[in-house]
Amino acid sequence: MSLATFDLSPLRRADRWHPAELAFWLLPVAAYLVFPDNLVLLTQIAITALFCLSLDLILGYAGIVSLGHAAFFGFGAYAAGLLAANGIGDPLAGLAVAALASAALGFVTSFLVLRGSDLTRLMVTLGIAMMLYEVANKLTDLTGGVDGLQGIEMTPLLGRFSFDLYGKTAYWYAVAVLFLLFWAARRLVHSPFGLSLKGIRLNVARMPAIGAPVNARLSAIYTIGAAYAGIAGALLAQTTQFVALDVLSFNRSAELMLILVLGGSGSLYGAVIGTIVFMSAHHVLSDMNPEYWQFWLGALLVLVVLFARDGVMGSVRRLSHAAGGRRKGER
Amino acid sequence: MTVLFDGVASGMLLFLISVGLSVTLGLMNFVNLAHGAFAMVGGYLCVSLLNRVGVPFLAALPLAAVLTALAGVVLERTLYRRLYTATHLDQVLFSIGLVFMSIASAQFLFGAQQQPLTLPDFLRGQISLPGLDMGAYRLFLILLSLVIAFGLQRLVGGTRFGAELRASVDNPRAARGVGINVERVFTLTFALGTALAGLGGALGVEMLGLDPSFPVKYIVYFLIVVAVGGSGNITGSLVASLILGVLDVAGKYYVPQIGAFVIYAVMVVMLIFRPQGLFGRRAAR
To answer: Is B121 inside any structural domain?
Structure first.
């Protein structure tokens, strides 16, 4: 009963679902009704949100910097793609295989990544992603190289819903996977395990003193993050029925980092909202002038780092503080 | 032999560009991924000076370096200095932002095509020795890089400015206390780093080519040099660049199937066994 002396109620409260969150998850339904012609884009948003969630778990919660998170995304995409191209077209089996494959890769590489400082981590993650890129580029027999992996045939989801031309099945499939994994991630970060990750990020020297095995925890979350990224990659491969080489590219890792920072790292909704804002802006801006979209992307990144370091979620939090007076116990 | 020579030449070129990064990253502890963008600016300046203004090649090189350094100083004064105390992650994001902007700007100003560069006559052609064909330009590159490496080593290790720089990095507060103008030292150092990037970029047009994707295409190489050589270490950067240059050229020549894979593998293995680099004097923060 020694725990009874601590007041755990703020932690328990944080675990409970807020009404605003339930409303948030009605957005995919609303989006489906409002933009029925843009389902492909909406599917992309859901997939990228999942990918961003995976980076948020390792960067935002555990504080592991990575410039090569696309490695797991691409690995999962190729795993699922190859499985389907070789006759096993069941979507859920593909997701499971991709998750396991990426998790295995994440587990093995976590030992490399966890050695060394931030700078070394940036370089090692970058190096691993570039190595995979080169391998995929050269193994043309297996991956199709620059031409991409073709011939992916999906069987109907759950044996009933086949992937249609309008992308309805693909959309609901991606949103359902995103929601389930979001729910799991939400449970995870509010569990004692998730709290210990936050502790490691905030003070790595003190955590061993209260009995938390730092490296084992980091290794575990890195593996989980890799599995999430792998599933996101698999979703992309299955819904587009194509794997392009650029799933492994440096640009994808860098862009993901931008999305997360834009939304606010260290907040699961930050990852999702950042993706929605970014992908919508991308869609609108690159329609207006496709060539110079990258300029505005860069300018945005610079401004976010200089002036709005905690992203959209940080601004929301500050606004709600200003509006709701001083509430206790937040942050 | 010729492969070795070409490898050394491309290593020297890598050294020229990366040593500037080594200075900002190692000595000022700033992760500047936009370093390749400065090299690209140097390259475009050199090409424009040559082709549009008609400045001779040997005059265009230092001009490109100086103008790049000026651009670097302006950015340092306005933006970079705000981030000296920020985390590495912030610095990385900020400089990636600059890279994206520079790529789009280069595309806007010069278009997506490769830029042509005509070398003066005395740098073209070959010098043939028994068993070895040396491109005149490569020889020029190697000699120039050696001079610069030596000069830099003297500057950081043996002058008053070098001492002030090392003091400012190790302990800015104490350095201020003994009357060193830390801001000025950092600005000058940053200018030096960008000038070297500009010079390297200008010299690299002939060998690496120049198009708007330059900063992303080569930044990995520059980072590898710094990571492997140990940041802030000039001899280390030189040795690492040479190893990398020779491995890269030899790899592409003898086993083209595996391409750039070797280099990344070497880097990752290196970093695992010696996170502080081959010649690192201490682990980076």
So the answer is: no
Whether B282 maps to a domain, the answer reads no
Assign residue B19 the CATH number of its domain.
1.10.3470
Taking an 8 Å cut-off on Cβ atoms, the answer to whether A250 and B98 are in contact is no
Average the pLDDT over B62-87 and give the result: 83
A138/B258 CB distance under 8 A: yes
Give chain A's mean pLDDT: 80
| Residue keyed to tokens 């890799």 | A226
For residue A275, give the nearest of A67, A64, A41 by alpha carbon: A41
The 10 Å CB-count burial string (b at 16+, else e) for A244-283 is bbebbbbebbbbbbbbbbbbbbbbbbbbbbbbbbbbeebe
Would residue B127 count as lying in a domain? no
Contacts of A3 (CB under 8 A, 6+ apart): none
User: How sure is the predictor about B110, in pLDDT bands with cuts at 50, 70 and 90?
Assistant: confident
Range of the domain at B26: 2-109+133-273
pLDDT for A159 beyond 70? no
User: Looking at beta carbons, which residues of chain A come within 8 Å of B93?
Assistant: 257-258, 261, 301, 304-305
- Of residues B89, B94, B224, nearest to A302 (C-beta): B94
> Shortest CB distance from A295 goes to which of B101, B259, B268?
B101
Domains with residue ranges and CATH for chain A: 8-323 (1.10.3470)
Contact flag B97-A298 (C-beta cutoff 8 Å): yes
Asked if residues B12 and B245 have their Cβ atoms less than 8 Å apart, the reply is: yes
Q: Both tokens of residue A305?
A: 């780092």
A269-322 pLDDT tens trace: 888 888 888 888 888 877 777 667 778 778 877 887 777 666 667 777 777 776
Buried b / exposed e over B117-148, threshold 16 CB at 10 Å, is beeeeebeeeeeeeeeebbebbebbbebbeeb
Cβ within 8 Å, pair A297-B100: yes
CA distance B194 to B188: 10
Q: At a CB cut-off of 8 Å and minimum separation 6, what does B176 contact?
A: B182
Q: Which residue has the higher pLDDT, A232 or A14?
A: A232
> What ipTM does this complex have?
0.70
Task: Please state the domain count of chain B.
Answer: 1
CA-nearest residue of chain B to A68?
B220
Residues in chain A, overall count: 331
Residue B122 included in any domain: no
Rg (CA), chain B: 19
Dist CA B156 CA B162 (whole Å): 4
Give the chain A residue nearest B270 (alpha carbons).
Answer: A124
Q: What is the mean pLDDT of residues A97-109?
A: 90
User: Testing the interface with A: which of B271, B274, B276 to mutate, by most A Cβ within 10 A?
Assistant: B271
Contacts of A179 (CB under 8 A, 6+ apart): A25, A28
pLDDT of residue B123: 67
Asked if B261 and A67 come within 8 Å (Cβ–Cβ), the reply is: no
Q: Do A123 and B105 lie within an 8 Å CB cutoff?
A: no
Q: Are A85 and A151 in contact (CB under 8 A)?
A: yes
Which of the two residues, A136 and A116, has the higher pLDDT score? A136
pLDDT band at A242, cuts 50/70/90?
A: confident
The answer to whether the Cβ–Cβ distance between A130 and B258 falls below 8 Å is no
Q: How many CA atoms lie within 13 A of B255 on its CB side?
A: 10
